[in-house]
Amino acid sequence: MENQEFQQHVLKWMERMEERQRAFEERVDRRLGSLEQDVSWIRGKLEGRSELSAMLRANIAIGISIIVGIGSLLINLWRR
How far is CA 55 from CA 24, 37, 66, 69, in A? Predict the structure, then answer.
């Protein structure tokens, strides 16, 4: 193999490797983008669940305070 043929062979090999590297980087970028979307979706669901849980706790606390208030009024009326 002559020196020039060897250089051309090496250059073609390097071009193929660069193409494979670009294709690999594109696949990784697509998968990372998909992963970011999935993580965002999960984060949104968790935040929604957290908000729902906080709202439920607040409503339970309000309900209990109303029941306690009515109970104390009834006890005061019954004692009179």
Answer: 46, 27, 16, 21
Residues 63-77 have pLDDT tens digits of 999 999 999 999 988
Signed CA dihedral, 53, 55, 57, 60: sign only:
negative
Question: Is the entire prediction scored with pTM above 0.70?
Answer: no
A 10 A CB-CB count for 7 gives: 11
- The tokens 């696949």 sit on which residue? 27
Buried/exposed code over 50-80 (b: 16+ C-beta within 10 A; e: otherwise): eeeeeeeeeeeeeeeeeeeeeeeeeeeeeee
The total number of residues written for the chain in this structure: 80
Helix (H) or strand (E) holding 15: helix 3-79
Token pair belonging to 12: 């073609």
